[in-house]
Structure formats: C-alpha cells, structure tokens
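Protocol step 6 of 9: fold each sequence in the batch and record its structure tokens directly after the sequence line. For illustration, a two-sequence batch is reproduced in full.

Sequence one:
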Amino acid sequence: MLGGDEPIVLGPFRVNLATSRVLRDGVELELRPQVFRALRVLIQNPGRLVDYEQMIREAWDGVQVSKHTVAVTVGEIKHVLGEYGSWISCQPKFGYRLEIPQSEVLIRRGWHFWNQYNRLGYENALRCFEQAAAHDSADFRALAGISSTYLMLASFVMRAPRDLHALFEEAHEHVVAVCGHTWEVRLDRAYARFVFEHDFAGAEAELLSLKRERPNSAHVYIRLAMVYLASGRLEEARALMPPALAADALFAPLTFISILLRLYCREFDAAVEWATNNVDLHPSSHIGRAHLAEALEYAGRFEEAQVQYEQACAITDVPIVRANQARFLARIGRTAEASAMLEELQRARQNEYLDAYHVALILDALGRRDEAFAELERAYQEKSYAMLFMNVDAKADGLRSDSRFALLEGKTLAALAG
C-alpha cells in the first residue's frame, strides 16, 4: 500500500497521500476532499481495476452512493489531471483503472536529465524522450519533452539556434496535433518566438497572457525576465523576481536569472553573493560556476575568478565556458594563453557549435577588433541567442564604444521590426 510522507510522482504531478495535496509543476491544485479520496484509491491500485464496490468502500467509507455519483467524482479527477485524464479508463458497469503508460519511466528519466541544465543532460533527455515517443507515438509528453529540449539547447547556447529551429517547430507541431494548445505548450511556443525568431513583442504578449493564467508558475516569470533583460528593461525584470521567488525560491534557472540581472545592472558585489549561494545549492552546475567567475571578475577579484573559471571548465566541455575563460585571460593580460585557447576553440569549432558572439568577445579582449566585428556579423547571420543581450552585457562594453556597433545594432533592430 502506497503512503507515507514522501510524494508519489505521476508525470508532472506530485501527490502526497498524507497531506491530501496534489501539485503540478510545483503549483498546488484544488480538489474536493471526496475527489482526493477517490484519486487515492486509484493511485493505491495502479493498473488494477477498481470496481464500484471497492471504490465506495474505500473512498466513501462504505456509505452507499450511486454509480452516477462515483462517475461524477472520477470525472472531476480527470478534469484536474487535464490532458493526462486519459490515464483513467472506465470499464462500463465494472469500475475504473488508473494506468500510467509504459513510456512513463523513460519520460521521468528524461526530465531528470533535462533538469541537470547541461549539454550531456539535454542530450540524454532527448534520447529518453525519443525512445518514449517511439514506444508510444501518441504520448504527447514525449513529444513535448523533445521540443522543449531543443528549445533549452538553444537558449543555453549549447547548439546553434539556426539549426535547432526547424527541429523545434516539427516537434512542436506534433505536440499540438496530439494534445492541443495546453498552457505548457504555449509557454514553449512563446519563448521560442524570442529564442529562434527574436520576436520580443510577440513573446512578451504571450508570456504576459500565460502569467495571468498561472501567476504562481516560476517558469513564466523566468522566461519573461529574459525577454526584459534582452530588451534592456532591467527594472521590469527586477520586478518579476519577488513573485518568482515566492513561487519556487530553489528553482535553479531562477537563480541564474537573478545573477544575470545583477551582472547586467553592474551590481557586481550583489552578483557575487547570489552566485556564491547558487554554487552552494548546485555545486555541480557549470552555469553557476561560470556566473560566479564572471561576477568575481567584474568585482575585481581576479584570482578568485580564475579558480572558478577553471572549475567551470573542469565540470563541462561546453565551448562557451572555455571561451569565457579565454576572454578573461586576455582581459587580465595573459594574452598568450588566451590566444592558444582561442586557436584550440577555433579548431574544435569545425565539429561542434561555438557561439560567434563569444568568439567576438575573445578577439576584442585581445585587441583584434576588426576580427571581432567579423564574428559579430557571423553571430547576426547565425541568429545567435547570446547576441540578444549584447546591449546590456558588460563583456561587450568595448565593442559598444565602436561606431560599427551602432550599425550592427540598427540592422538587428530593423530585422526585429521586420
């Protein structure tokens, strides 16, 4: 018999039988007590038929009710489960069965990898979701995982957005065809407008609509904050942090955004504090280490920054982490080391993606500004996601002082308006 204080994981749901609480993606759902009792009976009998007599005996404590009352109550459960309501099947005249698809293990494993926020994790997640989709082509959760993984690989600058755009669109269309425009599907679609299409206004409008529907979701605050940061609307991004923290203070991407906000606002000591706390919570995260290294660098604590850059590179082989270390070394005068690292990155670039914006930053730190602007042009052509933040990124301060930057910015703005 299932029970105890540990929540039971059912897809995106966390069910605590001891406290009678059901959460979906961290947001508590409202269920009538009787509805929860009926759900508990189904959960405690996974894959088995629960006949009317057993349901009435265990969910209604033996108080006689009609089959119609049971049907209405189970209908409420299915409504709460939303697009997952098909997990509950009815065998007319006999009872009900809660049956999780066989692909559930693969999907749960996929989201475990997805939440590691590194390239290997996303590649493993993609493999799990693809296997689940092959097992059950009608399981929209596997399809949603595939499209969301493509989106994250682009937004964490791990693969080229230009190459991932079509893959995302294809997977996303399959999701919509199977389950329609759910809130989660629309959330990914809205953020894809920003990541792949650089449609700031369209992304913002849809994200604001989604926020009104689910004001307690940290995910929507994070993505809206990224749009505001890229738009230079730093105070509007800052205003999103309190409700986001109230929704889920330990959510790793929220900490990443909080650090970026301090970096872009040039609040470097505060960025160090946030990044240090993040590393304490997520010591194996290369993103957290890289953010801490950058915060320490711009706070003038170069020796500490170098340690963190080295540790970040030891954790991951993501090229932009190495690129940031090379830029840092060039900036503090260790140009020979930085040049050697740049050459190494350029060789590796033939086989794996390296965002051109980050190459431009290295070249500029080395005093090779003409080459830096050639890379910025390449970043523009490749629809670099990192380039969206060049107007607020302290690392690009030198480039912004060049008259050619205004020309590039004008071309970028014209493309956005078009």
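Sequence two, same batch, same settings:
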Amino acid sequence: MAASMIPTPPQAGKIYLGDCLEIMRTWPDKSIAMTFTSPPYNFDAGSGLGNKYSGNEDGLGQDAYYEWQKAVIEELLRISEVSFYNIQYLAGNRIALMKLLGHFAPKIKEVFIWDKMGAEPAMNEKVANSGMEFIFCFGEGSRKIESATFERGTFSNVLRIPKNTGTIPGHSACMPIKLALTMIKNFSKEGDLIFDPFTGSGTTALAAEQLGRRWVGTELVAEYHKIAVERLGLEAQQGKLF
C-alpha cells in the first residue's frame, strides 16, 4: 500500500472541513467508539419550500439520496463500534429511507423514537403533523448494544425531548443538545471518541465535551464549520456548554 493510502487515525478535538465520505475513507477500521449524527433530510426534494442547508444540496432525487446515504452508513459501520442516525420521515426521503432500512436490516440494532413533544402543522394538505423523528442504531451483532451504560430496565427507546425553540445564528436546523447528551451519556463512557460526520453547528461535539468524551467532526460547508469552531471555542472559554 502506498504511503498516501495508509489509514490515519482521526484527530480528536478537530472539525475537518470537507466531504465526510472522503475523510472517513482515510480513517482505520473501528477508530470511532460512537457516532451520533443527523444527516440532511433531503427536505427540499419534497417540500417545495427551499433548501434548509446553506451550500449543501438538500433536494436530491430519491435514488441519488439513497446511494449517498448508503455510502455514508457503510463507512460508519466500518469506522464506528456503534452509530446512531437521527432522521425525520419526509416526502423527500421516504422512499430512499425505506430502501436504506431494507438494505441495512441486519445491521439495525435498535429503533429509537424521538418524541419532540409537539408538532408544527404539516406543510401540505392531507399530511399528518410530524411530532417525532427516528434514531436508528447501526452496528454488528444482536440487538444488544454493548456500549450501553444504563442499568437494565431504566432506558426507553422513546425519548421525550422538546425540539429547539430557537436557532443558532447562521444555522436553521439545530438539534437540541439534550438529545445528544442523552444518547452519548447512555451509550459511551468517559474518554471515548465521539464522531459526527454532519457537524453543523457543533452540538454533538459540545455534548461530548461536557460529558468528558473526546470528539471529532467533519463538515462540508465552510460557513457551518466556522460557526461550530467559534461556538466550541467560546463555550469552552466560558466553562458552560448550553
């Protein structure tokens, strides 16, 4: 193998600017303890309301979206011990999402429901309001999630956590930090390396840092990369993360 092709371990405490697929392909197998991420939902393909993500295509055809996310999940399975993948069921991704679940059925260890404790009115007529999102757990083996830290009978696969009521300036699609804190606390231990391939405003990294985990991220959009870097630095200096 040429020297340039030798896998390089991910650098903790860094948000890589670039395509997550290209970057993940340079990392060794099982170099990440836990991935927690929320990819673009392909919102613009079905809503007709425009792209929610600056500088990133969010209106792919169903086939293109399927192939892209299939490649992402394949890499996550290779580099991560366990991966949690948060996504909403929308017109723009529903066919691709069902195909992904079929393709990766043997690798789905658990299906969590994020109950957002409220739903905005549907964008179109004759469509149900959506007050929940999925979090799929991908990994090898049985339904048992080996990294879990909670006691038997104490953790539900329905997470009742309110959605964000505001946004980070410059980023309109931020998950509540409580969601990331809940998953990272219950499925990793202190010192583990936590990864988010779609870093966005840096919520996963902030949660990981607060819980004493190491973290690493990738972000394609330079504007979001800047927001995350500044947010992490500012919050760390103040000694508080939310």
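Proceed to step 7 once all outputs are recorded. Observation for sequence two: The chain has seven helices and eight strands.
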